[in-house]
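Hi R.,

Here's the chain you asked about this morning:
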Amino acid sequence: MSSTMQFPIDVSAYKPLSLDPSQERLSAEQLKQLETNVRIVRDTIVFFTAIAGVKGLAGHTGGAYSIVPEVLIADGFMRGTGSVYPAFFDEAGHRVAIQYAMGAFNGEMPFEKLLHYREFGHGLFGHPEIDRELGVKFSSGRLGHMWPFVNGVAKAHPDMAVFCFGSDGSQMEGNDAEAARLAVAQGLNVKVVVDDNNVTISGHPSDYLPGYNVAQTLSGHGLTVDEGDGEDLAALYTRMAKAMKTDGPVAVINKRPMAPGVPGVEGSHAGHEVVKKDYAVEYLEARGHTAAVEYLNSIEVPKVSVELKGSSKDSGSNRTEFGKIVNGILDKLPEAERTQQVLVVDSDLEGSTGLNGIRKAHPEVCINGGVQERGNFSCAAGFGFAPGKQGIFSTFSAFIEMIISEATMARLNEANVICHFSHAGVDEIADNTCHFGINIFAANTGLQAHDTTRLYYAADALQLKHIVEGVWKDPGIRYVFTTRSKVPFILDDKGEKLFGDDYAFTPGKDDVIREGKDGYVVSYGEMLYRSLDAVERAREQGLDIGLINKATLNIADEETFKRLAKAPFVLLVEAQNRNNGLGVLLASWLLERGIAPKYAHLGVTKPGHGGTAEQVAHQGLAPENILAKIQEMAK
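And here is the predicted structure, written out as tokens:
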């Protein structure tokens, strides 16, 4: 196998199986080969996902590792019959490592390619995006979104069984309940294989959602359900073969701990993330993979330090600071008032959105609602269905698209909710396109008359504090956006932090970061400090360029338009979808006021290309890109 000569794990013992589901049990020889194959694929996944972790690219090991047995059995059915759709559709897109591993083991990509998992420019993104040359046959990434799609595939191919790999986390989503009912009603030949490990990011469903039972839920929808031990390979094969021989939709529920056999990870929510190097080394050494360990130990990650003009050397994590800011407000309230006035609802992402800090300090106001964004948002809104009460909801900005209908009803009910959407934009989003938070203006759907919906996007952690504290008691829905990446602090023209104690935030009022006569750049969020660097460099070249920070995204500030009316050009810079971002809204505001400078809009226009910090530059939004546009418009 020449393509594997440079790959540090010996995969030569892997032999793909062709399986016939009419065979009720595996022969001893088949079972032995399946056990060998499972071990080799699992070892490979631990190895190449750990590489990404060492490189600082994050990733996900446990889920992909766990479902190797059922994927290999499904692969065997695909090889042994012509009646199985040839794709490993997976609802949990973060388990993409199994897709890449199977691409390599099935000869669709060289094994060496796996060494570049999640790197920029290599196509092995953090969630699957269709690339048939690499053996990636579908796109996925948002939990609960794949089964409904698979129903359509099954309807289009009635002569084939279609596998959909699920999890107890993805089964929490309402989409799956709808998909289950339709699959049963239509008799679709969908085989749903669920990894039921009682682990999600925020803990154990049996603890935070007592009463939730995947098998009982799917049985209640009318599916045939077969529940068993996912690590008993002989029995797993028999159960999957039985599912293949059963007409219509079947759910094969596999009980197992998260990442069985991986030290420091097994049974823990840490398995959702990338395996840490020390644990990977321990695992690989125990299995004799000396070359793989040497490879991991040889990785050197260059330290990149970029100092931009106009912003500080130190930085803050706005998404983490959100929880600290809320705690500061809650600390001042007596406990009885806290529980009466505030409800914080997590959607299984508390560690990424800052809500874990609130839960640790004030568990009395927090609930973990699991992977149920729509219902959790509405719960928070319902709590805020009275003056003096406040719901707090949080998830990733990419998932704002999932709660727009619920937000409309909350708005019509005059509910009071603060919504923290982290991971906005594209900066450091190694999970790639499906996790880009680039459609946040979908939240701006209220009617202008009497609408209290507000969209806030702070430039740094200091401004975020002023925003959250300043809008805490405001009525309606208040969206607060932050990034995955840390951001430096904005400095004034004297080199002092601009949003310090002397700063006062007023909703709807823009911040003049720099005055200018030759043109203005308008920006916000994580693009403000990049724009400021470009503006400062342009000023050094003799161009008197101004910069406006628009922290309130959906309200026009007339004072800003007085400045823009005198400007030869206006450049809007944002890391949002160029089709529907602030650039579109600002252009209409300018036209309505009869202001017609040269106008340009830099925004997100392309799918992601992997990596972390490279995502912004890939969109043409790096400081040098902004400077080049300023120079072009100033001619």
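One quick note: Confidence is low (pLDDT under 50) at residues 1-5.

Cheers,
M.
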